[in-house]
Amino acid sequence: MMRAPKYSCGVTLIELLVSIVIVSIASSTILGVLAMTTAGSADPMIRHQAAAIAEAYLEEILLKPIMDPDGVDGESVRANFDDLDDYNGLADTAARDQFGNLIAGLDAYSVAVSVNASSALPSVPLADAIRVDVTVSRGADIDFTLSGYRTRF
Q1: Could you tell me the CA-to-CA distances from 88 to 22, 26, 117 in Å, in that order?
Q2: Which helix (DSSP H) or strand (DSSP E) does residue 49 occupy?
Q3: What percent of the chain has pLDDT above 70?
Q4: Phi and psi torsions of 147, nearest 5°
């Protein structure tokens, strides 16, 4: 009677060590990618919120007339701002509504406004074109500027 050759059914120590090294490298790479993705997952939401705040401020400002309707220039309280140049130099340490009230949950954002005559519109005289820049910041990571133009019409 012939005997069948004996084969080993286990793995050698070298094979086991190589497979452990390969699995640990793959696991650490995947975990590193997941950690990086998780760490930056809130950034798009923060940028979108900064853009929304800038849009709200810019819309509020651009809806005001260029000329002061009551003849009194430089109102000091935001609720009384009635023309574009009243907003020049506005610096809010937290996002506020059009009446100057704090908006809950947006106190980490600061807003700065600049209103100047602009020569960027070639067919409009300098005195008739106003550029409004709204800059929204949140810490050192977010510094978002949105600009708009208003002309005399």
Answers
A1: 61, 56, 11
A2: helix 43-62
A3: 92
A4: -120, 150
